[in-house]
Amino acid sequence: MANSVAAIVQSLSLSPLKWTTQTMNQILEAGDKLYTNTYCSHKYWCYDDIPEFIDSIGVKKCQSFHGYLNSIKLEHPFYTLEEALKISFDQSHVIFTMGNTEPFYTCAAIKDSSGLFFFDPHSRSITGMPTSNGAAVLSFHQTVEDLKKCIKHLSDCLYSNKGDIYFETMTLSLIKEPESSSETSSDFSGFSAQSEGSISCRLFLAEENIERAKNGDFSDISDIDDGDAVDFDLHDGEHEDCDQGSHDNNGIAPTASDTDDHDLKDV
Fold first, then answer.
1. What is the full DSSP assignment across 112-160?
2. Biased composition, Basic and acidic residues: where in the chain (predicted)?
3. Which end of the chain is more exposed for a tag (fewer CB within 10 A), N or C?
4. CA count, 13 A, side-chain hemisphere, 235
5. For residue 53, what pLDDT is reported?
6. Which residues are CB-neighbours of 36 under 8 A, at least 6 positions away?
7. What's the average model confidence in pLDDT over 237-266?
8. Does residue 106 carry a pLDDT above 80?
9. What b-and-e string marks burial along 42-73, b requiring 16 or more CB atoms within 10 Å of the CB?
10. What are the residues facing 169 on neighbouring strands?
């Protein structure tokens, strides 16, 4: 679950539409750090273990909805998969969990202005299905119906011949702290270790540029050009260049990071 929470936190600063292989690798690293540095009340991370703050971002745990994947009509307090997804997306992002026994299977479902994204941190093929030698994947879906089909297909691969599978959608709302005022404050008590390092870095770069200007060197400090841009739709573990015509209808985007055993501990 920690990897999925890290993905939702990442979506606050960068739309999943713009995620690259490097972004996905950073998410897995952040998820692993979150798992190891946070108290866990059970063998596996659960919803109650999600901290209230992650990297100065407020995390609000909202409602959860549950039911069975293959059920067409259910009475309260149970919901069909489509009902649960629609209600959850109306509130915020979604931590999606399914399975009848531990370890449960957890992914992140993210909604933004571009559409719906499904982040699966486990070892998956280019089609988003289970494989022993794969990578974490990000898939794009235009509608809740499309996302529902993807989840049910994944469930059939994971839990074949195991009856109807229990699921739960848990909404997670993020609150970004407002930027500090530029006005001088009498309550200032010094920089934190993190902010001090960042400011030192910026001052060093500024000083370097001043020296370069004195020497008459006005070249651009950035070596990145348009040809280095990486397309979103498809990333495999070997290449970051993308072939827009090679992805399937699910819009699967595997990352460069193969999923090791430690990535599966917070399923």
1. ETTEEEEEEEEEE-TTS-B-SS-EEEEEEESSHHHHHHHHHHHHHHHST
2. 232-246
3. C
4. 25
5. 81
6. none
7. 41
8. yes
9. eebbbeebbeeebeeeebeeeeebbbbbeeee
10. 65, 96
Give Dmax over CA atoms of the chain in angstroms: 75
Across the range 44-71, mean pLDDT stands at 82
Asked if the model's pLDDT at residue 22 lies above 50, the reply is: yes
pLDDT tens-digit readout, 124-145: 888 888 888 889 999 999 999 9
Q: Which of 231, 49, 219, 51 shows the shortest CA–CA distance to 138? A: 231
**Distance between CA atoms of residues 50 and 118, nearest Å:** 20
- CB contact set of 22 (below 8 Å; sequence gap of 6+): 256
Rounded CA-CA distance 226/206 in Å is: 25
Query: What local confidence, expressed as pLDDT, does residue 37 receive?
Result: 78
Distance set, CA 29 to CA 4, 94, 189, 225, 256 (Å): 12, 20, 32, 27, 13
